[in-house]
Amino acid sequence: MGKENPAEKALNLIRGRLCDPTFVFRPLSGPPDSNYSKLKFIVSTSITEGCNNSILLLGPRGSGKAAVLDLVVGDLMEEYPDSVTLIRLNGLLHSEDNCAFKEIARQLCMEHHLLFSKMASFDENSQFIIAMLRECGLAHKTIIFVLDEFDMFAQASGKQRLLYSLLDAMQSVTSQAVVVGISSRLDADQLLEKRVRSRFSHRKILFLPPSREEIDSLLEHLLSLPADSSFPSGYVTQFNEKIKNITSDTRFKDMLKTFLNANSTVNSLLKFIFRAVSSMNLESGLLSLENFKTALSSMLRQPKLEAVRDCSILELYLLVCMRRLEVKEQSSYNFISVMKEYKTIHDSFQTSDFYAQNVCLRAFEHLREREVICYAENRGQSQAGEYRPMKLLISASELHQGMRSHACCPAILLKLLDH
Amino acid sequence: MTREDSSKVTRRSTRFSSSLTNDNPEPNPSHPPTVADLTSGQESITLDALLSSFPGRRSQILDLIRLIGPLDSPALPVMVYGDASTGKTSVALQVFKHLNRPFVYSSCRTCCTPRLFFESILNQLLLHSKCSSNGYASAKRCDKPSDFVNLLKEALSGVVETLGSAKLERKLMGKMVYLIVDHVDLIKEWDKGAMILQFLFGLYSVLKMPQLGIILISGLPPDVYYSNMGYTDPIPVYFPEYSEEELRQIFLKSQVNKKLYSAFLDVALRPFCRVTRRVEELSTSLSSLFRKYCEPLDDLSISPNEDLKRRLYSNLRPHITSCLNEVFRVSGRPRDGDTRGERRQKASYSSEKGEELEVLDFHMSTSAKYLLIAAFLASRNPATLDASMFDSTGGMDNRKRKRKASEKSMEKKEMAEQEAVMKGPGSFPLERLLAIFQCIASVGDSSLGEEEDEEGEEEATGYDKESNNMMSDILLQVASLCDANFMIKSGSCPLEGSIRYRSMVSEDLSLKVARSLSFPLSKYLYRR
């Protein structure tokens, strides 16, 4: 009980840190030319000088755009307690104009403790919003509109009504508003209509993948335990010592490099560390290199290979037959032609695995459910399933590799695949 | 802020429903649902019991438990994926029974629209059960993701508050609620499925509530969900198919006489594993085979010695091959005690012993059977040969002199064959079908008369001689064959104006039907 408790507490602490984006991105906001400071500068000047502004945050998914924005907004709410209102919209949920306006009106009502009626019509909502903008402008309160998944707003109904009305209101009414768009499409501003784009200030902040030094400092920041009184001090120093040993190990550096080659955003790194930390040995209470190794192998999966390895032998036969038909340059084939090939193989090699047509049809269906093969065209609904043209969804090398690592693949199949 | 009332659905009451008195007993109103009901409610099981009830899943169970983490520890979304019947749902639910944490389970197979899905989750969180007093309505009406997010936040904060404040007599349940969504791969087929999938994967970051843990169960691997809208991948946990050894353990677990069953599995499991490794399919075929295996034994609780094992195996061996060819079929007829079927098989048309002759195992009227055969012939034979096939001599003259085929014509024949295979069965207009039907019905009529003194066929051979009066019935039969998917309506040519049909039956089925009518099908089939 005594040894378990600090280990569990440490585990909970680190997991909590990994799931909390504001904690993760705080050290990245230190340096003066980071995205955090740029964003903060823009928003705070528009608050202090009472002007309108619009800005786009762009970067691949998981690079921390929303997190940095949250940090900025949090800090500004502390600095200017009463003069900032935050309205959040998400392109996935609110891409329809009615929905979006209702949501803005609802959030405004919540902020200012007004009564919100769900039955309000679209026009009433939009008038309300414009009136609120004017009032807040006169009272020198800034409203920050955060539009997540900005590209979905731009693509949704084709008219971009919400964007136009917001940006238009900012220009014509006496208002103090900042519109921040977040998108993972780097060309999000190209999607805007002409009239919207003319009202949009083309400020963009790009979020790039972190550099090596940033990653190293991030690792230390996440994994080191604080030396406060809730942990026994010997344990804390032991833990931090072990972390330092691991991160300076060349094998760990190689693993990290392999992982980041595949996916270099901060979010995927967090998932990797989460996986490693979750498999921490609770008895010793220390992380080890093994944890990171298991995490790496479980994150970098090859699903098609696993699908081939899971196939039964009959299904492997069918896959090999399809591959042979492809090699013979038969451009399209269906179940009946695969059955013919299957029969010729059985006749020439006298294999023991020859089953009836209905059994093979069901095995075929299993393969199709697993998305290893699929119908070549979608429109052939008027044909029976056996006559529709099929195609393989895995490449020859994947099939080869899968069969070689299969538990009990008969040798004849490998031979057939090669010839 | 006005709160939304629970939707009062005004229902039109029909005369019938209002005349019914309510007989079903109401759920006991003195037991209001509490937050503690969100756990599985029964005694939690130990880790060892959990691991032993799922042979072969040890590493996946431990993985899942570690990812969920200790009590009150925040977690990133997890996706459990694997083939069908690999135990994903049962393992997830049993893990929660072991951990005794509150969870909400929703399956996308039963909740097949977004509205049903959202409302089922909200009902469980708001501890609302549909009963007749509230008209079987949900607690809140919700069909858009935006409403769902708001309502979910409210419901979750309510539940978390109750969990945090109330004093619970049972063990600690923690302050986190877990959401299990099953059959996520079915969302792809929904209307606007891609959007809903994107929403589901991003739910964790949209909600920003660390008290919610999300576990997704999917039958397809995560790479299927990649879309051009971007994808936040959950942490994957893979459930591979069982190996042979694990299958043995699974099948042995529930058996009474383990030694006998293990001797049976020694001989039967390996050949079946070559066809399929799914537990559900293997269990149906193995259970019927096991019955055959135990037939010569009087006492089912003995443990066999080597000699007995060998004898039982030799008794079973001829049945294994036939069973292998029926692996995926569930027999419509009861196996035990039906010796009539065997008699019929012996007295059937062909006299070859080794061949498995199957009898049609569903009932069709005679005219429907003739229609089926006519449709099959119409699809397989080219229309230009109809005249020579169905002339008054009742069959194709097979004794044509065959010229020695040159190589080019052989090649051409192969290409034509390939094309025919790719195109599948051809389509035919209704008139051609009826013409062929009339021809073969008259043929069948004459051949039936010859074989009337065969052993008493119990099938109704009441095919009337007044076939000409049954045209309207025939058209009805065509419609019912279409409904049963034996024929489908192909596209109609706008020039011709008539509807074309296409036959969907396989050659085996049509041979079976022809055999039951004693109709010489092979004489009428055109072979290239």
TrEMBL record, chain A:
It is found in: Nucleus. Component of the origin recognition complex (ORC) that binds origins of replication. It comes from the Eukaryota. Residues 218-402 form the Origin recognition complex subunit 4 C-terminal domain. This is Origin of replication complex subunit 4. PANTHER family: ORIGIN RECOGNITION COMPLEX SUBUNIT 4. Belongs to the ORC4 family. It comes from Brassica napus (Rape). The keyword DNA-binding applies. Its main location: nucleus. Keywords: DNA replication, DNA-binding, Nucleus. SUPFAM superfamilies: P-loop containing nucleoside triphosphate hydrolases (SSF52540). Residues 55-203 form the ATPase AAA-type core domain. Pfam families: AAA, ORC4_C. InterPro entries: ATPase_AAA_core, ORC4, ORC4_C, P-loop_NTPase.
Automatic annotation (TrEMBL), chain B:
It is found in: Nucleus. Gene3D superfamilies: P-loop containing nucleotide triphosphate hydrolases (3.40.50.300). Residues 448-461 have a biased composition (Acidic residues). It comes from Brassica napus (Rape). Residues 333-345, 406-416 have a biased composition (Basic and acidic residues). Keywords: ATP-binding, DNA replication, Nucleotide-binding, Nucleus. This is Orc1-like AAA ATPase domain-containing protein. The lineage of its organism: Eukaryota, Viridiplantae, Streptophyta, Embryophyta, Tracheophyta. InterPro entries: AAA_16 (IPR041664), ORC5 (IPR020796), ORC5_C (IPR047088), ORC5_lid (IPR048866), P-loop_NTPase (IPR027417). Residues 261-310 form the ORC5 lid domain.
